[in-house]
Amino acid sequence: MDFIQSCREFISIDSTPTSGSKVIAEKAAQFCRERGLHVEIQEEFNGDTEEMNVIARPVETRPSNEFLFQTHLDTVDPGPYQMWSKTGYNPFDAAILDGKIYGLGAADVKLDFLCKLEALVKFKDVKSWGLPPVLVGTYGEEVGMTGALKLIRKNKISAKMALIGEPSNLRMINAAKGFATVEIQIPFSKEEINYRQEHNLRESTSTQSRIFNGKSAHSSMPHLGESAIVKMFDYLLMLPESVILMEIDGGTNFNTVPSHAILELDLTPTRESIAKKITFIYGAIQKLEKEFKDYCDSDFFPPTPTLNIGMVRTLGDHVLIGGSCRIPPVITHDIYERWMLFLKQECEKVGGSFRVTDYKKPHRTALNSILARGCRDELRAMGLDETIMAQSSTNEASLFSRVGIDCVCFGPGQREGNIHTPNEHVVIDDLHRATLFYEKMIERFCL
User: Fold this and answer.
1) What H or E segment, with its residue span, contains residue 162?
2) What element of type H or E holds 116?
3) C-alpha–C-alpha distance, residues 185 and 167, integer Å
4) d(CA 406, CA 162)
5) Residue 205's pLDDT is what?
6) Is the model's pLDDT at 81 over the cut of 70?
7) What integer is the mean pLDDT of 155-165?
8) Measured between alpha carbons, how far is 397 from 339 in angstroms, rounded to an integer?
9) Which of 49, 109, 136, 256 could make a disulfide contact with 20, Cβ separation 3.0–4.6 Å?
10) pLDDT at residue 362 is higher than 70
């Protein structure tokens, strides 16, 4: 198996939330079988979307204890194709330029699975294991870590320690923020619904539209982006409260700072405008963000909780707003519950609804754990940065650590200003360094 060609094949497969991960999981399973590993799959339907976990071992039967090497195979939506200038405006057509490979999932985090596979295959003929390794590719990380949840609930692994794939620029991550994803529904008034329906049926109508542009970034690092939705909401604040909102749309998912938004409105006055309701809730969000500044965890950057309004959609009788909060370990569950209750009550004041669609606790692995110390020793021996860092985003370590698995996150690829943005890339030499690191970890913990 040619490694670079395998990277190209992985990037060429669309594993975004709308497409699902079955195709890439089947490709991953094929690669594993071709290299002599024993493969098990977990299939799942998310509505009409087919999903799949891949579990590969060098041993035929599941051992009582093992070391987990995990990577998620799904990606976020690529956003506008015209922004992917390095790949010929196709995020699924990998391009190699100046020693880097560009494409959706290059850094976050499909190619890390291939690095782990390359490392594991070197030991496929080992007959006696101390702590046998298991390689797992999961689905749904970008939409609630549903694949990892299924893996745990169906008791498919016996891991005591785990290396979780995460773009870390070849540094070790021992802690991560938790997150809560939320949905807010704001209703149109009956007057607005009737007016919008009549307006769409007229032969001659006129509205005013405005497009807002920003800069995409991962929602855990909102300071690196520029939210087009925030610009749009700030613009709404300057308009008369009685305008009729015809269409409001922005962003691609809760987990990305939105790079685009569009607003269409009619200046005909109405007694109860949804625009007024939206700006009221926006004010509540701003009040909460102000309180966030009172809670700092110096292990993280940004050190405070953050909030991202990731998407807005206009539906038949309401506007849907989706977003996420990032929560460092310093935030107690009581504080988190108080914040969510505040948002719920503010939404209800304008007749809206609020719900938390997903919640993952923050986690922190002790620096003196056997796994953390072993990682630092191997990084130091390879001449890599052994400095331990915390991560503002959340991944499967949050789930695995809750069931007693000691977790550390690691992977090739720069995070800041790279993932969840067009022209995502990874340095090819860093893929090889990651592979060597995984080999060293197998030698240290598994043999």
Assistant:
1) strand 159-165
2) helix 110-121
3) 34
4) 6
5) 66
6) yes
7) 96
8) 24
9) 49
10) yes
> Amino acid letter at 373?
R
Q: How far apart are the first and last CA of the chain?
A: 25
pLDDT digits (tens, 9 = 90+) for 199-208: 777 766 678 8
- Give the pair of three-digit tokens for residue 193: 């619904």
The Cα-based distances of 38 to 3, 25, 30, 35, 121 in angstroms read 20, 14, 11, 9, 11
Q: Give the Cα separation of 289 and 386 in Å (integer).
A: 34
Beta strand ranges found along 23-143 (DSSP E) = 38-46, 49-57, 66-72, 95-97, 100-102, 133-138
β-pair type (388-391, 172-176): parallel
Percent of the chain that is helix, strand, coil (3-state, to 5): 35, 30, 40
Find out whether 157 and 150 touch, Cβ atoms under 8 Å.
Answer: no
CA pair distance 167, 108, nearest whole angstrom: 6
**Tokens read off for 18:** 């709308």
Q: Is residue 146 within 8 Å of residue 394, measured between CB atoms?
A: no
Q: What angle do the packed helices 110-121 and 22-34 form, to 10 degrees? A: 20
Largest Cα span, the chain = 78
